[in-house]
Amino acid sequence: MLGSIPDLLRLVAVPVFGWAAYRDVKTRRIPNRIWGPLALFAVALLAWDTYTVVNGAGGRLFFLRVAISLGFVMPLSYLFWRIGGFGGADAKAFMLIAVLFPVYPTYLLSSPSVALPLEPTTLGVFSLTILSNTVLAGVVYPLGVAASNVARGEFGLAMFIGRPVAVDEVTEEYGRLLESPDGFTRSGLDLDALRMYLQYRGLSLSELREHPNQYRDPASLPADPNPPGDGSLATDGGEPASSVAGDTDTAGEPADPWGAEQFLAEIDHSAYGATPVQLREGLDVLVEAEDVWISPGIPFIVPMFAGLLVSLTYGDVLFAIMQAVGLA
Fold first, then answer.
1. CA-CA distance, 288 to 170, in Å (whole number)?
2. Are 92 and 212 members of one domain?
């Protein structure tokens, strides 16, 4: 495979993004330490390309494409993070994509007449191609989830975005509950927040299920709670907390069921955006049900990595589709 030296060096980042995708699936955690070196690497390659263009030809088009990548794709990634569409690692990854791949790379195969990517675009902003391929890869995911549920004979409102699991296995999963006491919901309890709550109380979910009335009382919160951690699987569990009687409201329900509001107020960081209502409703479901639907979600870096691979080989799938139907 032949190409410019900067384009060949850019391929070094591909397995790093692959590792990040794998790590995100397994742990939902990506170490921050990988982003700094990648950012320096991307800036150095962009500077190399800039120097080459300044001393050659085609500079105006190159700088226009770089400006679109840095001035549109990077702010768009930040905006999606601000509105909750991306996680922090997702936003950092795509900002890096904008710097690392602002223009189309070229990789010549054994024959000079065959070059990757096979399907370039008129605009020529490669980070936009990766973004559009990422979106298409993300669209395929719910279809795969639904097919898997149909194959298992599982049907329901959540079959396109989730799967059923036994309640006893919930604390070993990443994702979000798709159930509330009123039925299906897209805004159920984040399972990381559940683990933080259990760690804080020093309880396992099975202990909570054995004595739900006891632990629904906010007075059962431990006087000296455990650090809640970050909700990773490694922090689930602990020693049972003792319970004492507490005040209830006029209907006989504790004023702060499960101590949800107190827990969220006392921890020193957000529990993945969980609200007291989400935590209470999630716990109410989990102490009663035997099986629940959860949305495992798909870390954005996974379709982004798929989009990157498709972009480097085939090129812009959306542009090809638009050409096929006469829209481009």
1. 13
2. no
